[in-house]
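Notebook entry, structure prediction.
Reason for the run: the old model in the group folder had no record of what sequence produced it. Starting over properly, with the input documented here first.
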Amino acid sequence: MVTFGDNYSVETNSKVLEFDRKLAIEEAPWIVEVVPAIRSILIRVDPLSVEMEKVEPLLLELLSKPFPDKARDQGRKFEIPVCYEGKFGPDLEYVATKSRLTKEKLKELHCSCNLRVACLGFAPGLTYLAQLPKEFKIPRKESYNTTALPGSILVANRQTVFTATEIPTGWSIIGQSPVIGFRVDRSPHFLLQPGDEIRFYPISEEEFSNFNPAQMWDTYGIA
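New structure, fully documented this time:
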């Protein structure tokens, strides 16, 4: 595990993603898997392909080298529709109350942010986005007592989670998007990647129903 900071920041997360890309460029045969997170990166190695005592010096050597240009952050920009109305945002009023905002002001604030895809994890295509304004600094619930549908917009601790599959959650659900970030019939299977930037925009229930789920994948040239 290589850790780049104690808390989330764009600078810390960029270092994680740059090192992830650099490891991919190196194509070291002893690396089995690389898992980037918000502020750290997990590197699984094959102990039959490398002497374990050499792993740390090898990684430190890679870290000390300048990052090549193609390892730099090359995130794409997405605008993703969200319906905050009725059944799509069951916790919107709760979050608005905790934030001391009206529901309309909360939606406006959530849609005013350019949010960075910090990492994917926990479930296929589940996207962690940062960072929301201080008004969204509310804790997660004390239990996983809610089911979040694919496309749900969850908030807690100044983060947004954008689900791609159905999951149990203790986060507050403030909306749902018709865009689904994980599809087995597409390649790659994930719409979003770490380093991408997202900006949400509000739509009505009728617009949600009429939205073509494949539209976003087609727009960004994902097969």
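Summary: The two ends are 33 Å apart (CA to CA).
The old model has been moved to the deprecated folder.
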